[in-house]
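User: Hey, quick favor. My workstation is busy. Could you predict this chain's structure for me?
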Amino acid sequence: MEPAKPPRYRRVMLKLSGEALMGDGDYGICPETLARLADEIAATHATGVELALVVGGGNIFRGAALSNEGLDRVTGDHMGMLATLINALALQDALEGRGVTTRMLSALEIRQVGEFFVRRRALRHLERGRVVILAAGTGNPYFTTDSAAALRAMEVKAEVLLKATKVDGIYTSDPVKDPNAKFLPRVGYLEVLERGLRVMDTTAISLCMDNQLPIVVFNIRDPRNLRRIIAGEEIGSRVC
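Assistant: No problem, here it is.
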């Protein structure tokens, strides 16, 4: 029997949107979807890769949307950060239930539920084989969790940023609404910005471009995709 191939990446950053936890629902956390994601993350971690992940909170609250209805933007963004903490705790519990040692680090200091984010602390947890769950975005209003994922990826020296979505990768337009949308297996940072492709927000793309961090956009609904990417298969779309 041939020995198993080593992972292509030693350390990765996984960006999970809050919507990824909803399943087919319209709000909140779907227990079956949470369990499936935890199974996939646990199996990926078992390959030996050092895994950090940033989770969003859009399944619970979107501060930017409500700011258009009169809610103060800074207040709304802080409420959204608290929503990410709820999702992070759910993921942590699901992973710990599968025997995965985790640490939840928050950009907001809430000692009762997690550690405050300190870069060296996050690096130490990764080096010791723990899955690091990063919550509360950057801790600052006006910055999305996409930007937080890009920033934290730089800070922990991740080799790639994996953006989990509900579609197979990057398209010229929304494939759900446009049957003529073309799939783009590989695209440059500048092309993403110039064409307004809805991959991540412009701050996140610019940060990755300035630091030459590749982004892989893939469909998280296929339970094999995360491990296949880690193993080196060409899955989804690559921004580089």
